[in-house]
């Protein structure tokens, strides 16, 4: 079987919303690793879908599986399991030593300062349940496999979450105001920082790659501060009884795994990061 020239990282799901934010970072050469992107459409370097012949794909050292199903009923969302299995099979066929799977902080449900070791997964949404099932399948795939697998419990990504339209001025942002007068506080990560985290994990020796890791900036941010930093106006409403003010992640494990990757950024720095990404798109 013939393959194209090797690369460091093969990225699947290049046509997705998250990849749209990361693509300009990799395209600008902001990481030292060579990256080839794959999409079922025309968004990637290579057009490819699961089930297609793999001889169009390059050998690689790492697969970053950005693809995923974010909406639908439980049956549709279980497609995330099949995509994880496909990423594992590709790794075996293309010589990859590690696969990074996009999971979600949503597997935890609401909570503060949640870590991989202290917080039991209690998803509050069908999407969170689906990602937890995907993680469980990945753990089974990793047993006795020559490929190292890491599930990234990803926080909100600036420019690729529910605030995205408001940050670009397409929509007026509406935020909940809680009894203390404040709004929602969340763990976030900006696209440039995320690209550096992914590159850092892709460079780790496989035996040092954590099986699961929270991915976020070190300190949570108020969603209102992101909007203010972007120069956007906010429409406030009284928070409904079921609203959760604070959902945050502990990133001690990530920081320990990647001590040379800076994880500090406030709202202003995150919006600047987003603007830099948009400028490169």
From TrEMBL:
Q: Which Gene3D superfamilies match?
A: NAD(P)-binding Rossmann-like Domain
Q: Which domain of life is it from?
A: Bacteria
Record domain NAD-dependent epimerase/dehydratase: where: 59-161
Q: Pfam family example for this protein?
A: Epimerase
Output the InterPro entries linked to this UniProt entry: Epimerase_deHydtase, NAD(P)-bd_dom_sf
Identify this protein by name: NAD-dependent epimerase/dehydratase family protein
Q: In which organism is this protein found?
A: Roseovarius gahaiensis
